[in-house]
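no rush on this but wanted to send it before i forget. what follows is a protein written twice so to speak, once as letters and once as structure tokens for the fold. mainly i need to know what kind of three dimensional shape the backbone takes. thanks a lot i owe you, the record is right below.
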Amino acid sequence: MMTQRRSRTFAAACLLAATATLAAAGCSKSETTDTASGDSSQGAQAPKSPEASSGAGCSLRTYGAPKLDLKNAVVGFSQSEKEANPFRIAETQSIKDEAKKIGVRKLLTTNAQSQLSKQISDIQDMLSQGAQFLIVAPLNSDGLEPALKAAAAKKVPVLTIDRKVNSTACKDYVAFLGSDFVEQGKRAADAMIKATDGKGKVAILLGASGNNVTTDRTKGFVDRIEAEAPGIEIVAQQTGEFARDKGQQVMEQLIQSKPDITAVYAENDEMGLGAVTALKAAGKKPGKDVKIVSVDGTRNAVQALANGEYNAVIESNPRFGPLAFATAQKFYGGEEIPENVIITDRAYDETNAAQSLGGAY
């Protein structure tokens, strides 16, 4: 047992070293695509320490897949949501850029347009087109089982990014690459406590239901506020579905129904920016009359922070390309991949926003 544990730790350390090297080298209504990429040399992902990765390791042998040279392979990428969101734009572009950089023979890309049934059919279609390895950004944590089973039947490994699936690692998928979403919620709560001096009435703009991102970002925030800031009251929790227009609509309703709100926690930047628009239209000063903290790290949110209309942004890094393909290369090289590979995310506040715009996406 001790030997196995050391093996997994060693595998995670190898993955850390390899991906950190790659990262250093190069690594819903919204703004246009020219605001989505940022400076990739500043914003490339890196995994946390090996100890932050968790779960049983998965190797090519234990997964039961054939060996593959990615340079002679057909790789499929399934995007979950409409690319009218800077996170999704940057994520897809990162996958495309890295596939080109390492010389993948053919990259298939699809977009489910926020429809679970379409994501299932997209994945099945890519398998029919000969996809030999799949990178999937799941729309929901549940529901992709038919697609995962179709991939398993063809012995095609699946790597999930940015959202987890409630399936069995090293059977239905190889590993999850992404952020610690509970920790993001806790960090957002810490920023909110600082911005409000631990007092006030906070509304939460929830993300879309049915995925672990929303659940975890909510839990982290609520638990931290309850433990550390008894002077802060959470007076509303309503979904804005991760969309700017929906976030604006919800904020407009909250301004009418709960006019004494003094702060907003938005579970992504798009909803937070929608709240900014609603507050301005109501004659309130966002960032001052109503404090705003959100998660993502888009350039428009960081710019709003630099302009004093926002109070903090916790990053959720979408640039998965280098890490995803480095993980695939390690997997096909015979190394064990931890079930959860957790990445580092930075934070933006009034002290670093202006100078950090180049690293936002």
In short: The first strand starts at residue 74 and ends at 79. Residues 1-42 have pLDDT under 50 and may be disordered. The longest helix spans residues 2-25. The chain is about 40% helix and 15% strand.
